[in-house]
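Deliverable D5.2: sample structural annotation.
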Amino acid sequence: MKKRFLLMATAIVTAFFVSGQPVAANAEESVKESTEVITEKGSSEEGQITEEQRESVNAEAKAAGDSIGSATPISLGTGYEGWIVSGNPKDFYQFTLSSSGRVQFTGSANIKVVSFRIYNSAGKEVWATKEKWESATQTIVMDESIDLIKGTYYFAVLKDNTYSGNYNFRLGFSGAGESFTETGSNNTMAKGDAVTFNRSYKGQLAENDDKDFYKFTLSSSRKVTFSATTGMKDIHYRIYNASGSELWSAKTKWNSVTEINSASEAVTLSKGTYYLAVSQGRSSYTGIYTGTYTFKLSTHSHSYKNVVSKATPSRNGKIVKKCSCGATNGTSVIYAPKKMSVSASKYTYNGKVRTPSVVVKDSKGRTVSRSNYKVTYSKGRKYVGRYTVKVTFKGNYSGSISKKFDIVPKGTSLSKVSKGRKSLTVKWKKKSSQTSGYQVQYSTNSKFKKGNKTVTIKSNKSSVKKITKLKAKKKYYVRVRTYKNVKISGKTVKLYSGWSKAKAVRTK
């Protein structure tokens, strides 16, 4: 029995042989055509391990299968490692796909001449690597995508009769999400899958499935619009009649920016049964020729209506011209109403109701029409306090924005500032309506840029304040303002009037 070892998820484990597994009569012959049978049992040539080293390895682990009949079962998404030597040039692993999809093969090997291949259950090769030896790293590194249909497969590691070494690999998988379960059964007109109009379908072309057929029937003569998208660079869409004669083929367009190949055309067909064929274009193009595709057959005149996704202060909206069949014919953006401004954020109390005007601009800086929102104001807007203006959007917009504005007390003025020895006596005009008190501010700087001192008078009935502990024979500038205590969100806040004109006095 040939001996090699299999290391799963970086730990050496004992692999097992699969016995009694049914294999097609020509399976082994098909594999032999793509690899050379080796009988050499050891060598001292570069890249090989000696018989003694091989016996040491075999003492630690059992072999992976060396044929389809004895292939070792593996799990998708799990990493594996193994050795392959001159006398045993083939390792086989078995895996099963529960649906069509993409196998992502990643791996590496320090074997100078080696190939990785995939065979179907009949032993026919369906895929092989295009490996390249990296002399700088002394490795072959692989990362390839393989589209396959549902079924059981065999992954093979094959080497020539000169080089030996170790390898590792992992087979990941993602399902294609096809509309019909794909086993290669719809590859002829007779077995085409029946489709209906105005509905999207998804299919896959694979390494072992280069054509799909779909069947549809028209009860009367009419125009049929065909639309499709795919990531494959070269693909053919054709329509055949019941006799198998080609009536139409689509013109596709590859977008190098989005990497999408699209088609959208209309064809007029008479009453009858037809077949849509989707096939690979590898015979005329060497680009991407496997992968998924989506298509739709539409049979009516579109009637578009505006479908609105409303804009909010935090995100743009849009208007899509959409037909009941799902087709669209243009999209326009409704830019977010991000910024709201009011004509004034502060008013001085005059006993009258204050109502600032509102302007709303969108994220492009354009004014939003007044018809798209309603403005509401807080009550009692003629007294000193803080009030709210709220904009509630409507029409193509939703949500709301709010702004605050203040009504502050009416200011007062200085009546007289008298000098004293290291002191000043400040008098002002009493303002008892909508006030709680006063603030007197003095400074040696005429513009009050620095060194300011402020004294708060808590009674609105006061009109005089003596300021002491000043510097002698020093010039001071004095001004006064009113304030009122108001409740804002449960907290007491002072709202101030503007400052009066300043007076200058030199202390004694």
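Annotation notes: The mean pLDDT is 86. The two ends are 118 Å apart (CA to CA).
The annotation will be released with the project's public dataset once the embargo ends.
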